[in-house]
Inverse folding.
């Protein structure tokens, strides 16, 4: 049974609330009632998640078009794992974004905010229309996550911050005897920041098995291939040597993603590092596996080409 | 100065006349009253006197090691879960090295994190310029949402720390080394955030001081009195939010303002006062502060004299304004 025993409330909500974001009032509405997933067959689950991931990619490209461009590469490589987190693994109440017992997700590689915004919209945390206001004047949805947006746990994107913050969240759960799990997604080039390894040491020392770090290992940074910038290899061994339980997966294989998320924590008394091998720009051939699409312009024509490849309108 | 029965308070004895230890003592009172308080150490357990906290509340203590960036990040994460973290650290390291974490994870995210920054200014005199914190006020007060406090003595350090129970946002508490033998503030006066205390009346000239320089400002005021000059002394313990009213009143009622701080000229208390007066009420000013250079090695008192952060320098500055 891939779904696990817990009743997960992601997508089991009815929300119609008025929220205030800065100077803007946004009406959230979502009347989807998807019901219990506990008996969903595995192939149906995977199919549902893959469809959601395709929609996520369409939505992130839509946001990029609204903004005139942005970080297509790292947003696309993260899309499948974000989908599995928000539509399968995490316990969330989109109608109550500050629910104290919610699982936490920190997008340390905050430049992938187009993907985070898309998944938050699809999950019902924010108004879908906000995706069309990416980068717009006074929009709460800018290039990097802002804590003022419902569902966003921390303002990130200055790299090397998220793992420490997530460690604090996981420690906070322990102090308050709460059962929520904290996830943090790191870019691979982000791991050049030494502060990550301070946090990696501390999380292992404190045996925070309620913490999972996901490394979106797309092998490409802003200036080129990471191997040619500063090599991270052997990456999995680095995490192991810091005291983490490590699993390497294909970050685009929904079955592997779901199985790994369902198995957390991989080992009692250890934090988990998932080194997810991914393709930068995944899903749109001209953006795949090139530093040129770390960040790039997106106009109507580029957007149309991307959507054509993604399909599934 | 009548300190009354409080001179025998256990916290005072344990503070040994050090503001950094008074912070640790105040934490014990906070621990009794606030179950959400959590203390973090960056290998600073003795520096801020938190071993009693560790003994009392081991589950609410986190040692992060010599990793200031991590300390701030973890504190921010803790705060998002509803806890009230207190980070115990060295001022020269926490303010500079983890500046970005403080700006993004604490100030921008507006999280309730209190930073107890010991060994500020040139209190680690013989440790050398790498270990002096002479730009921390400029860094900390330049960020929105921050509260910046510089206690003048152990009384004020103790009460200012207690006051953080009611501050729902980030706080930088600047703690020095040894402070005056006799406290310059009244224990009974407590601490009112953002409200300067007038320690000496006077309408000829005003000295606005913070931290260890408050004691020297009082000495200067006494010396000026003997020469027939009434120098008002304001203890500006809160650098942010600044007590605009007290400064504007002093500018209106006296012939000029002298600021005194153990910090560089750039961006500290003097800068804050000058920013206000330049716009609201241009007023003759003098600044007693560390010049634009790195200090040599030496005992703190000798360094203060060498770089013009002395009672004599305050006296001379005041005379130049009333002369």
């Amino acid at each position: 049974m891939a779904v696990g025993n817990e009743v997960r409330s992601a997508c089991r909500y009815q929300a119609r609330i008025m929220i205030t974001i800065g100077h803007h009032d946004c009406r959230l509405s979502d009347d989807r009632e998807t019901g219990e997933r506990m008996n969903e067959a595995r192939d149906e689950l995977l199919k549902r998640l893959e469809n959601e991931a395709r929609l996520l990619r369409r939505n992130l490209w839509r946001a990029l078009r609204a903004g005139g461009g942005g970080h297509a590469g790292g947003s696309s490589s993260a899309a499948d794992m974000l989908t599995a987190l928000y539509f399968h693994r995490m316990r969330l109440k989109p109608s109550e974004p500050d629910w104290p017992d919610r699982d936490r997700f920190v997008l340390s590689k905050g430049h992938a905010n187009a993907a985070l915004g898309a998944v938050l919209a699809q999950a019902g945390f924010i108004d879908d229309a906000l995706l069309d206001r990416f980068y717009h004047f006074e929009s709460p949805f800018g290039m990097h996550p802002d804590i003022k947006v419902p569902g966003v746990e921390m303002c990130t994107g200055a790299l090397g911050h998220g793992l420490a913050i997530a460690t604090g969240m996981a420690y906070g759960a322990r102090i308050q005897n709460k059962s929520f799990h904290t996830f943090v997604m790191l870019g691979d080039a982000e791991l050049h920041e030494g502060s990550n390894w301070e946090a990696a040491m501390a999380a292992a020392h404190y045996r925070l098995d309620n913490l999972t770090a996901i490394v979106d290992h797309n092998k490409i940074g802003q200036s080129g291939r990471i191997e040619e910038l500063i090599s991270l290899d052997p990456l999995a061994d680095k995490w192991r040597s810091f005291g983490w339980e490590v699993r390497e997966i294909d970050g685009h294989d929904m079955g592997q993603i779901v199985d790994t998320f369902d198995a957390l924590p991989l080992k009692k008394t250890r934090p988990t590092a998932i080194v997810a091998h991914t393709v930068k720009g995944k899903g749109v051939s001209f953006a795949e596996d090139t530093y040129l699409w770390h960040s790039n312009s997106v106009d109507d024509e580029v957007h149309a080409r991307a959507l054509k490849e993604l399909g599934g309108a | 100065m009548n300190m009354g029965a409080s001179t025998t308070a256990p916290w005072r004895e344990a503070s040994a006349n050090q503001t950094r230890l008074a912070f640790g003592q105040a934490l014990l009172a906070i621990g009794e009253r606030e179950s959400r308080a959590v203390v973090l150490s960056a290998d600073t357990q003795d520096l801020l006197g938190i071993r009693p906290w560790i003994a009392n509340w081991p589950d609410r203590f986190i040692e992060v090691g010599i990793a200031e960036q991590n300390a701030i990040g973890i504190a921010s994460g803790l705060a998002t879960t509803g806890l009230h973290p207190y980070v115990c650290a060295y001022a020269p390291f926490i303010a500079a090295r983890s500046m970005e974490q403080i700006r993004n994870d604490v100030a921008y995210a507006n999280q309730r994190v209190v930073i107890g920054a010991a060994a500020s200014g040139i209190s680690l005199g013989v440790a050398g310029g790498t270990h002096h914190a002479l730009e921390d006020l400029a860094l900390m007060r330049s960020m929105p949402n921050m509260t910046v406090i510089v206690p003048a003595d152990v009384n004020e350090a103790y009460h200012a720390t207690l006051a953080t129970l009611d501050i729902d946002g980030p706080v930088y508490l600047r703690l020095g080394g040894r402070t005056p033998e006799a406290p310059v503030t009244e224990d009974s006066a407590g601490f009112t955030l953002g409200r300067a205390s007038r320690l000496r009346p006077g309408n000829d000239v005003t000295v606005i001081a913070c931290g260890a320089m408050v004691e020297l400002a009082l000495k200067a005021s006494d010396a000026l009195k003997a020469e027939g000059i009434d120098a008002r002394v304001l203890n500006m313990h809160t650098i942010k939010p600044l007590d605009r009213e007290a400064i504007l009143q002093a500018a209106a009622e006296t012939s000029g303002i002298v600021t005194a701080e153990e910090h560089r000229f750039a961006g500290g208390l003097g800068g804050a006062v000058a920013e206000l007066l330049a716009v609201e009420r241009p007023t003759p000013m003098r600044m007693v502060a560390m010049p634009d250079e790195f200090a040599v090695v030496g005992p703190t008192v000798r360094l203060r004299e060498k770089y013009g952060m002395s009672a004599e320098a305050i006296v001379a500055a005041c005379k130049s304004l009333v002369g």
In short: The radius of gyration of chain B is 19 Å. The mean pLDDT of chain B is 95.
